[in-house]
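Hi there,

I know you've been waiting on this one. I reran it after we fixed the sequence typo, so this is the corrected version. Both the input and the resulting structure follow.
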Amino acid sequence: MELTQKAPLCSSGEKGIDLESIEAECRQFCTTYSKKTVRGTIWETKVSAISQQRSWFVLDVMSLFPFDLIGLMIGGSGGNNFAELKSIKARAPSAGGQSGLWAMTLQLVEPEILGSKKEHRFPRWINDIESSDLEFGIESSKSPLRIYVAAFYFCAYTMTSVGYGDIGPKNILERLVCCGIILSAGLCWAYILGEVCGIVADMTSESQEFRKRMYHLNCMMKMQEAFYQHVLQELQGRMTEEGTLLRDMSPQLQSEVSTVLNLTWIQKVTFFSQFLNFLELQETRGVHVVPYKACIADIAKALKASAFAQRESFDNVQVLYILSKGLVALDSRVGYNGAVWGEDFVLSDTSLIRPVAGYALTYIEVLYLTRDALMEVIERRKASCPQLGRIVRQHFGLL
């Protein structure tokens, strides 16, 4: 490829590029910006001029020099090479633009032949790629796509500071893969750097105190949640173990143990207390009361355990609660170990139930019995112990 064939094409657009650059420079110095002051809004031009002088003003002015005339004065084709490089200024300073810039550079800059020795005035990085592709019969210099990919790969690891020679792809597929890896790593690095800069920019005493407070709060919440889950699992495990042990006993022994363990709160529930009085009366009369006591064992098996943290609220719609540990506020009174509330849980109409809101003053453990569980026991023991269902209906005036 002869450079003289390209020179007319480059020189024809050279003046247009120069005029466009001069017009852009003048526009930067003439552009006005509004500025609000106590006297009102004023328009200034020095803001743009100062910003332009602090950026690429010197390089922009140097790019307007007539390198073609300088080349003629020096002699040789070096000036023509510089003149053609002037067209590179029309490219955008982005990754794609820089790729096109290097692709144009690799095409425009030709080695000079001095005598019988071929010397390169500029680095010909494309030759390494071309020589490796020639082994497979591919001429990279004749493929615009391969030139652009090679230039894009060069610009990618130049802009991301990967380093020259750290990665050495041998074909176009490897270059594309390396470009993807380099750009992904560059984006990750830019994101991490931005996050670090954001943290450093916000490292005031107030923000540090806020973060420290939030950190301790999160730690405390995790500890409380872990403690609550541990206690709840321990409570449920204990209830499961006690239930398993109770089921392994004989039916009569189950009745005796259940009566002793639950006698404290059973006496506080009116209809259960009446049922116990009925059992004592039948026992004094010499009546066989083992089927009656089996009802108490079934009720004990139907009990479930739960735990509530301090300052936690809960309700008792169709649920009978028995407090086994801690202190609880029940509307206007305070309940302690053995307290019972929600005795009207057997009513099917929830509008007739007197709501009692529970508020845990300390960590509490409760046993609770649902209406469905009690009705299931009454239905199952209807033939052997009909008195329990009769006492419950009489207590609430039900037919």
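Quick highlight: DSSP finds 15 helices and twelve strands in the chain.

Best,
R. S.
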